[in-house]
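Bug #77: duplicate submission created two jobs. Keeping one. Sequence:
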Amino acid sequence: MSIAIQRHLTLYFAWRFNRKPSDFSRATRVRAPFSNPAWRGLADVFNGMSWMKRIGVRLSYADMDEPETLGELTDVIAAKAGKRAERLATVKLTARKLTLDDKDL
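Kept job's structure:
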């Protein structure tokens, strides 16, 4: 179910960078625009997202040290989720207008 995880991450980074989701692939370097502390701090952002809670995954700051690309970050989360990632298979992703108060971002 790493495809579902990647889709969630893609939607986040598309919003964050103000780009279309179709601009992203597994090879997209999503870490480059962030300082090291800001990148590590994304662990807290992701941990607060409902889809991460649904699969029971919490990222540590150390988990953020290696991934550079969307695919690598997807793989870190998928490895931690294991079979629990299947819970995302039933979640339908829909495009909607996001606000700064959105609890899933």
